[in-house]
Amino acid sequence: MVNERVMELRHHQCPRDESWVEYDAQGIFLERVCDKCVKSKLAKYRPEILSGYNQSDVDEPIEPDF
User: Fold this and answer.
1) Domain of residue 39, residue span
2) Is the pLDDT of residue 2 over 60?
3) What would the pLDDT profile of 22-62 be if each residue is shown by its tens digit?
4) Number of domains into which the chain is organized
């Protein structure tokens, strides 16, 4: 039942007068959301996408060029 509700909210069509646009940390459009669905729709994004990150946050070795 809970999973059905979450899936339903992820595809929820927000009323224009009760919704707003959410952008990622770089200013790229993500979703149109409202109070009813905001948590469900944004849950599919990693926290770094919403809050921002820089190179020091990404601790991956860089492969050398051959």
Assistant:
1) 2-52
2) no
3) 999 989 999 999 999 999 999 999 888 899 877 676 666 77
4) 1
Read out DSSP for 7-65?
HHHHT----GGGEEEEE-TTS-EEEEEETTTHHHHHTTS-HHHHH---GGG---PPPPP
Backbone conformation region of residue 51, classed left if phi is above 0, alpha if psi is from -120 to 50, else beta: alpha
Q: State the Cα–Cα distance between residues 66 and 46, nearest whole angstrom.
A: 32
Is 42 domain-assigned? yes
Contact between 54 and 26 under an 8 Å Cβ cutoff? The reply is no
